[in-house]
Amino acid sequence: MEMTRREFIATPAAVAAPQAGSPWFDRPMRWAQLTLAENDPGRFDPRFWLDYFRRVHADAACLSAGGCVAYYPTRIPFHHRSAWMKDGDDPFGELVAGCRKLGMVVIARVDPHSCREEARRAHPEWIAVDAEGKPRPHWATPGRWVTCALGPYNFEFMTEVIREIMTLYRVDGIFANRWSGSGMCYCEPCRKSFRDFCGLELPRTTDPQDPARRQYIIWRQRRLFELWRLWDGEIRRVNPNACFIPNTGGGALSELDMKTVGELAPTLMADRQARRGLMPPWANGKNAKEYRAALGRKPVVGIFSVGLEEPYRWKDSVQTEAEIRIWVADGVAHGMRPWFTKFCGVIHDPRWLKVVEEIYDWHWRSERYLRNEESLARVALVYSQQTATFYGGPRALEKVEQHILGAYHALVEARIPFDMVHDGLLDPARIRRYRLLILPNVAALSDEQCRQLRAYVEAGGSLLATFETSLYDEWGVRRKDFGLAELFGASFDGRVEGPMRNAYLRLEHRTRHPLLRGLEAAPRIIHGVWRLAVRPHKPMPEAPVTLIPSYPDLPMEEVYPRVEKTDTAEVYLQSFGQGRVAYFPWDIDRVFWEVLCADHGRLFANAVDWATNEERSVEVHGPGLVDVALWRQQNSVTLHLVNLSNPMAMKGPYREVIPLPAQRVRMRVPGGGRVRGVRLLVAGSEPAWRQQGEWLELTVPSIGIHEVVAADL
Questions:
Q1: Between vectors from CA 607 to CA 605 and to CA 609, what angle results, nearest 5°?
Q2: Residue 296 class from Cβ within 10 Å (0-12 exposed, 13-18 middle, 19+ buried)?
Q3: For residue range 406-420, what is the model confidence (pLDDT) as tens digits?
Q4: Which position among 119, 508, 624, 659 has the lowest Cβ density within 10 Å, counted as fewest Cβ atoms?
Q5: What angle do CA 512, 516, 522 make, to 5 degrees?
Q6: How confident is the model at residue 672, as a pLDDT?
Q7: pLDDT mean over 611-637
Q8: How far apart are the first and last CA of the chain?
Q9: What are the tens digits of pLDDT across the range 239-288?
């Protein structure tokens, strides 16, 4: 029987979520992870690590227990015990006991993604199979085999392993790494389970519009959520206050539905350990926002590596001090609790130890200002997993994520505090606190989601949307017209133009529209790469931005516009209900990410200000690229300022910290409360400040990597 997407989303939610009020989930603020190598027993010094946990004020630890290798005296057949363990050795148990003496929360790490040759011979049904029907050898370690995540290896063998660990050590939880599979598996248990689910054979294509592929996406998620609930149930039978914590989650490209993940998980660890390739430091803060969009006020922990995270997998490497600091700072600024991870108990390069100790010591001393209760952002950026899955498919990075990245960076450059929102959570309780929702090519929206967005605007919220937003239904099937056509004030005219070369936007300054603020000297700016032909629903007043169509770019003698001026609007602005709507029928966000044209960033930020239609809650004036976050705690308000100004801002690692000069700050005090005092938590000083009504004003003398303005109320 085929399952609809609505049934699929609803099914996991019907299962009992972890008990509310479990005692430990919100307590830990600083995590430590020690992932042992098989030859660590007898070579590494547990006392050193326990002393280091104490020195850095770590209040929770994740310790290697089992799966690929067991670090305790397991009795389960084919659960390979470290060959370096002697009779009577129990390195996992020794670390657990030491952490408990320090009063720490302890969770056990398991990794079930591979097994050894003797296990494969005894249980061939445990092994993943490729499309040609061949068992999959491990890609990195000879003699190991990739296991199937959706069959008896996880559902039977690893369930027994988890039960044994919980029974012997009664830890606070089980953290599973690489638990959800390593690509498509065509083993007989998977083929049978999939046939039983939908009557089809496993797909041989990645096209999400293929019926079998669509059903596979649904079946795989259903199977993994079944596994999650199975393991969580076994854990709670032993320790009702413990839980299963999967290493999963993220943004639009995440494979598991984050709405369901947020319902099931009492806490979650965001495993984006460091930068790789082209990636700004704010990517860690973005990860924090993506998780918070699904988990709400549940604690989100940010895993960071002390080493490089490049494709070549230098797991025993050490990052520069500045790179570690900037990565952690942006995660903390956006609500993450830090978790350092160290691979191998033997330290080959000790340079990271002092850096992490200093970061954690500051975090411990500032803890009361880091227990956030509410983000004070008034703008939110929507991300859509269904758009990535069913519209983007294999091209989701280009067609979906790059739009998000461009919008995100434009907001950072504009120093606008903002959150992220999951498109499966557009109910009024979630979004009414925001003045503006930004839809960066959120192409796939259901009729119900469109209805929710219309109700939001009618009630006084505003929208900023780009390109093909709402042109497809939730399955990625193109509609005849936008689902939000009434809000846009325009309809799709049936044509997608692009990739365009040498096209421009004419700025109609005589309109004196605030959209053109800061662009007064520019008669025209570059256009995007892809645009939709749209037609307005009614005659429009003169548009502030109009089309100059593409014209030849070679030979140089032919480079002149064939059409100097049109009346084709390239932005649609209107009031609707009590809100406002700005719609760009082109890829302003994606092209901004690709080209980083300052004019596009300015135009986008102006559209945000026009649509928001209220004074910003915080203004930060001064040179540099600064990431801004505004939080409310029980008795304080904090403004995080992260200095991203660096030649390595887009390509790491940072070599050094380049301090910013003075920044003038003006921020609204929630509810007009009276400020009792102001501190700069990183500088450790008390700046001069004044409060005028609901506004607090001060100057931050300098920012190294991170400064936190803490206002006591």
A1: 70
A2: exposed
A3: 999 999 999 999 999
A4: 659
A5: 105
A6: 85
A7: 97
A8: 58
A9: 999 999 999 999 999 999 999 999 999 999 999 999 998 999 999 999 99
Measured CA to CA in angstroms, residue 200 lies from 155, 193, 204, 215, 222 at distances of 23, 10, 12, 9, 16
Identify which of 629, 630, 657 has the alpha carbon closest to the alpha carbon of residue 320. 657
Q: In angstroms, what CA-CA distances link 225 with 121, 219, 232?
A: 29, 10, 10
Q: How far is C-alpha 670 from the geometric centre of its chain's CA atoms?
A: 27
Provide the residue count of the chain: 713
- What's the CA gap between 423 and 421, in Å, rounded? 6
**Burial class of 539 by CB neighbour count within 10 A (0 to 12, 13 to 18, 19+):** exposed
Q: Is the peptide bond before 499 cis (omega within 30 degrees of 0)?
A: yes
pLDDT digits (tens, 9 = 90+) for 102-158: 999 999 999 999 999 999 999 999 999 999 999 999 999 999 999 999 999 999 999
Q: Is the pTM above the cut of 0.90?
A: yes
At position 73, the amino acid (one-letter code) is: P
Regarding the domain delimited by 5-266, which CATH topology (the fold level of the hierarchy) does it fall under?
Answer: TIM Barrel (3.20.20)
Domain with CATH 2.60.40.1180 in the chain: 618-712
Nearest to 628 by CA among 530, 700, 688, 543: 700
Domain 379-612 has CATH 3.30.70.100: no
Just give the CATH number of 618-712: 2.60.40.1180
Residue 304 is encoded by which pair of tokens?
A: 């960071």
The 8-class DSSP code of residue 135 comes to: B
Looking up tokens 């380049």, which residue turns up?
Answer: 658
Instruction: Provide CATH 3.20.20.80 ranges for the chain.
Output: 5-266
> How far apart are alpha carbons 69 and 177 in whole angstroms?
13
Looking at residue 389, what DSSP letter applies?
Answer: I
- Preceding omega of 653 cis (within 30 degrees of 0): yes
* Cα(108)–Cα(244) distance, integer angstroms: 10
Mean pLDDT computed over 606-631: 98
Q: CA 362 from chain center: how many Å?
A: 25
Tokens for 194, please give them: 């999939």
Ranges of H-type helices in 38-187: 46-55, 91-101, 117-122, 152, 159-169
Judge contact between 713 and 678, C-beta under 8 A: no
